[in-house]
Design goal:
The complex is a heterodimer of chains A (about 160) and B (about 325). Chain A contains six helices and no strands. Chain A is mainly α and about 160 residues long. In chain A, helix 5 packs antiparallel against helix 6. Chain B has about 325 residues and is an alpha+beta fold. A six-stranded antiparallel β-barrel of chain B has the order 1-2-5-4-3-13. Chain B has a six-stranded antiparallel barrel with strand order 6-7-8-12-11-10. The chains are: A mainly alpha (about 160), B alpha+beta (about 325).
């Protein structure tokens, strides 16, 4: 498999920036979910198993700060990573609406799976978390992901 | 030869197996006991995520320092404000203490009053005191402060009175040097602004020359002001008019703008005709320092210096005299 350094550089940068903003600066929801964006970007470049493995790794890193729902992010991002790789077979990706929809759906799906995997002690009401907060966060991630993909060119290859 | 199938299909199958394995792993991570989960989390936090944890500590420390800095700055501002108020209170205390000392020497014939200035244009030389007719204040009553003469009462109402200070154009005071050797009239000379207002000692005999620093007090003539109240000190000669009189600029003893509390003569206070001793006994460290207390002290030590300051001008013909001789 040919290694696209632009994609991997972008993904590495997004991961570092994600933990820098969320963990280092403690910005929380103010900063977008760049880890999901990075996973969705790289998922367009790798196979299903690799995508799932990367998602699993990203999820474990995210779970390292979770005391009550350890593993929930790993499950969610493994699923998203695996399904993200399948979109290459389903969508060509040359539409201007594809990337925003892709990032939106990926982020929202990740939140949905996380909500299902997390225990009752952690998750909030479904309507509030999945139907209100998650779409807003997904729009945020879609905007940032589209900008990143457009600027770097990563994620366009079909 | 065994049939291995399409390579793409094989790769696809391999990826699916791999993905399934990771999915199962993630489920394992989700379901393993909490201590094992936390062990994994700790390892991740201490290795891969350690730089971000350190970064978080630094950022939190910086935030804490910023908050502490803001709190310290607020405390500093409060202290500065407190110190400023304390400074003005100390100054007011000093004035009141001096006024009380003077009031004690003057006795019950003088009462202390608070000064209020309207601050409106045109009323700069007039102020209101919180003593009136019911307190025994009469029109023309002298208004004093620790440093000397401030002015006099011009209008009396029941519980308050209006007074003019020495910057008022109508202010006049019969004055003399502290030793009583030269007499004249003190009048104001308005400057462009309040701080430029000066006093002029007028009507001094031409052949009497006063040295700078000579104390000038009220003479008691005319019955308006009691004798011996400091008015100011000689600064310099203003003019020697037509060779028959001299006038001198005075440095005022009392600054009306700084008068917040004053002493006002009430019934009986007018009878006292000589207050020189009351003022000359004021021996506080700040007492009329600008005046030079030695000039107002009638003690024997100062008589010589006062005499030196005021010396007669020798009679001698001047170059512009035209045979008429000196006066």
């Amino acid at each position: 498999m040919r290694i696209d350094w632009k994609v991997w550089g972008t993904v590495t940068f997004l991961v570092l920036l994600h933990f820098g903003l969320h963990t280092g600066f403690g910005l929380g929801a103010v900063a977008p979910d760049l880890l999901s964006v990075a996973l969705l970007v790289v998922a367009r470049e790798v196979g299903t198993g690799t995508g799932a493995g990367i998602g699993f790794g990203f999820g474990l890193l995210e779970d390292a700060f979770s005391a009550l729902a350890f593993g929930a992010n790993a499950v969610a991002m493994t699923v998203v990573g695996a399904l993200g790789t399948r979109t290459r077979d389903l969508f060509v990706g040359d539409s201007i609406y594809f990337l925003p929809s892709y990032f939106f759906a990926g982020k929202w799906l990740k939140d949905l799976v996380y909500w299902m995997a997390a225990g009752d002690a952690v998750r909030g009401p479904f309507v509030q978390e999945i139907l209100v907060e998650s779409p807003v966060a997904a729009v945020y991630a879609a905007v940032v992901g589209t900008v990143v993909a457009t600027v770097t060119g990563a994620g366009w290859r079909t | 030869m065994a049939f291995n199938g399409d390579p793409t299909e094989r790769a696809e199958r391999r990826h699916l197996i791999l993905a399934s394995a990771f999915f199962v792993l993630s489920l394992v991570a989700l379901s393993i006991p909490s201590p094992a989960q936390q062990q994994i989390a700790t390892v991740l936090r201490l290795t891969v995520l350690h730089p971000f944890v350190v970064m978080q500590r630094s950022v939190n420390g910086a935030r804490l320092r910023a908050v502490e800095n803001a709190q310290l700055r607020a405390q500093l501002d409060t202290l500065v404000a407190l110190m400023s108020n304390t400074g003005s209170l100390a100054e007011e205390n000093r004035r009141l203490r001096g006024l009380m000392q003077l009031g004690g020497r003057l006795g019950a014939s003088y009462r202390s009053a608070s000064v209020t200035r309207s601050g409106t244009p045109g009323s700069e030389s007039v102020f209101v005191i919180d003593l009136g007719a019911r307190d025994g204040v009469r029109p023309g009553a002298p208004v004093l402060m620790r440093d000397g003469l401030v002015g006099k009462v011009i209008d009396v109402r029941r519980s308050e009175s209006s007074a003019m200070d020495w910057t008022h154009p109508d202010f006049r005071a019969s004055a003399m040097t502290a030793e009583g050797a030269a007499y004249g009239i003190v009048e104001p000379d308005r400057g462009s602004f309040r701080e430029e207002d000066r006093l002029l000692l007028n009507g001094i005999a031409f052949f009497t020359e006063l040295d700078p620093g000579t104390a000038v007090v009220t003479s008691g003539r005319g019955g308006v002001f009691p004798r011996g109240v400091p008015i100011g000190t000689i600064v310099e000669l203003n003019e020697a008019d037509a060779r028959w009189r001299r006038s001198y600029w005075l440095r005022p003893a009392a600054e009306p703008a700084s008068a917040l509390h004053v002493l006002v003569a009430v019934e009986g206070g007018f009878a006292r005709t000589d207050l020189g001793r009351a003022f000359s006994d004021d021996s506080g460290p700040e007492s009329r320092a600008p005046l030079g207390s030695d000039t107002t002290d009638p003690g024997p030590d100062n008589e010589q210096s006062a005499a030196e300051r005021m010396r007669p001008v020798p009679l001698a013909p001047t170059s512009d005299s035209t045979g008429g001789g000196a006066l």
